[in-house]
């Protein structure tokens, strides 16, 4: 296992269409995070999972966004009725749980670049 | 909201020069991570600092975590063109490890 993988790497869609992204974390990492990054900014937290449980959702995650991690392994992020403002890089990260959760390092995938026309 | 401010926003230097990037906040973080990101790619972890006053060295990179765990710095000695990238600091803001990122410092090293 070489790291976190994301698919697709790039997605171009028309406004109003639905899109789904996939993230495969590092094996045995039970925490998984989604972030969004726009040009010139650092990544912003969207949501995260401990195994299959979704623990928190950011206010950035409107009701058009849904994330799942059905078996505690890979995760999907779906955006319904896309808008031009959804154009961004969507990043996934995973981390193990060794002890104190806040010190566990997060490892990022290469991201999915979404462009909404 | 705990904000992380990075300075400078942009830094252009010549190969062989030294540089320092700063990451500051009014809030305390349990840990802080530094990443480097290249265009079209995800952030790549450089280091995690946990203890106030901690100094970590990674070849030509030196990372320092402030005594109060509110600020950090990254110093690069004898920069190389391969050091070019967006340097991001991120602090853990809850016990689950949720990260708050700074906006980043774009470093360009020219030959």
What topology does this entry show?
The complex is a heterodimer of chains A (117) and B (111).
Chain A: E1 5-7, E2 10-13, E3 19-24, E4 31-37, E5 44-50, E6 53-57, E7 65-68, E8 75-79, E9 88-95, E10 107-108, E11 112-116
Parallel strand pairs in A: 2-11
Antiparallel strand pairs in A: 1-3, 3-8, 4-5, 4-9, 5-6, 7-8, 9-10, 9-11
Chain B: E1 5-7, E2 10-14, E3 19-24, E4 32-37, E5 44-49, E6 55-58, E7 61-65, E8 71-76, E9 85-92, E10 99-101, E11 105-110
Parallel strand pairs in B: 2-11
Antiparallel strand pairs in B: 1-3, 3-8, 4-5, 4-9, 6-7, 7-8, 9-10, 9-11
Protein architecture, described:
The complex is a heterodimer of chains A (117) and B (111). Chain A is an all-beta fold and 117 residues long. Chain A is 0% helix and 48% strand. Chain A is built from no helices and 11 strands. Chain A has strands at residues 5-7, 10-13, 19-24, 31-37, 44-50, 53-57, 65-68, 75-79, 88-95, 107-108, 112-116. In chain A, strands 2, 4, 5, 6, 9, 10 and 11 form a 7-stranded mixed β-sheet that branches. A 4-stranded antiparallel β-sheet of chain A has the order 1-3-8-7, with no helix packed on it. The termini of chain A are far apart. In chain B, strands 2, 4, 5, 9, 10 and 11 form a 6-stranded mixed β-sheet that branches. In chain B, strands 1-3-8-7-6 form a 5-stranded antiparallel β-sheet, with no helix packed on it. Chain B is built from no helices and 11 strands. Chain B has 111 residues and is mainly β. Chain B has strands at 5-7, 10-14, 19-24, 32-37, 44-49, 55-58, 61-65, 71-76, 85-92, 99-101, 105-110. Chain B is globular. The model of chain B has no long low-confidence stretch (mean pLDDT 93).
């Amino acid at each position: 296992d070489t790291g976190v993988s994301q698919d697709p790497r790039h997605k171009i869609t028309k406004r109003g269409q639905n899109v789904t992204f996939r993230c495969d974390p590092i094996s045995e990492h039970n925490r998984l995070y989604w972030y969004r990054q726009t040009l010139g900014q650092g990544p912003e937290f969207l949501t995260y999972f401990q195994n299959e449980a979704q623990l928190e959702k950011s206010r950035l995650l409107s009701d058009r966004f849904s994330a799942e991690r059905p078996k505690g392994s890979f995760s999907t992020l779906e955006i319904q009725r896309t808008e031009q403002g959804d154009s961004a890089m969507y990043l996934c990260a995973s981390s193990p749980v060794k002890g104190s959760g806040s010190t566990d390092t997060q490892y990022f995938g290469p991201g999915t670049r979404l462009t909404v026309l | 909201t705990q904000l992380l401010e990075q300075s400078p926003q942009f830094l252009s230097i010549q190969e062989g020069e030294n540089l320092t990037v700063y990451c500051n906040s009014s809030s305390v973080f349990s840990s802080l991570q530094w990443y480097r990101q290249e265009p079209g790619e995800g952030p790549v972890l450089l280091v995690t600092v946990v203890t106030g006053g901690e100094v970590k060295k990674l070849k030509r990179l030196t990372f320092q975590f402030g005594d109060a765990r509110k600020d950090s710095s990254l110093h690069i000695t004898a920069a190389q063109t391969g050091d070019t990238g967006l340097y991001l600091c991120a602090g853990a803001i809850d016990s689950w490890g949720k990260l708050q990122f700074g906006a980043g410092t774009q470093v360009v090293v020219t030959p």
